[in-house]
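Sanity check

After download, print the first record. It should look like this:
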Amino acid sequence: MATKTKSRVAIRPLHDKILVERDEAESVTSAGIFIPDSSTAEKPQFATVIAVGDGTLNDAGERIALDVTAGDRVILSKWGGTDIKLDGQDYLIINASDVLAIIE
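Expected structure tokens:
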């Protein structure tokens, strides 16, 4: 189970799936201009990993662990994943292949 500062999430992704929480969309530009919610059509590509699956099995039956761990900040592909709502919080379940990079 993954632990967050807001609440406790009781969900465990399977195989090569990853549970992430997207960053909040920017509501103010660097110049101080407020952006209304209606004009933020694109979802943020940055997210925090909440929980990861055990990985996939190779041909020999050995488990291949994922490259990300809970707590990592990542960059996601634009259109991957499945949006879910759990305990009033929005999450995204994605394939490990939808993670483009880990932010260090």
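If your output differs, re-run the checksum step. Summary of this record's structure: The mean pLDDT is 81.
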